[in-house]
Amino acid sequence: MKEKDNPSWKIDTRCVHAGEGTDPQTKAVRRPIHMANSYELPTDVEELVKTLSWEHLDKFNYTREHNPTARHLEERLAELEGGEDCVVAASGMGAIAATLFALLNAGDHIVCSEICYTGTQKLVSAHLTRFGVDATMVDTSDLNDVKAAIRPNTKVVFVETPGNPIVVISDIAAIAKIAHSVGALLVVDSTWSGLVTQHPFSLGADLVIHSTTKYINGHGDALGGAVIGPKAVLAEIRERGIVHLGACISPFNAWLILRGSATLPIRMARHSENAQKVAEFLQAHPKVRSVRYPGLKSFPEHDLSARQMSAPSGMMTFNLKAELMEHFAFIEQLKLVTHAVSLGHDQSLIFYLPTVFFFSDMVVMNDAQKEKYTRLMGDGIFRFSVGIEDADDIIEDLDQALAGV
Ligand SMILES: Cc1ncc(COP(=O)(O)O)c(C=O)c1O
Question: What pLDDT does 180 receive?
Answer without folding.
Answer: 98
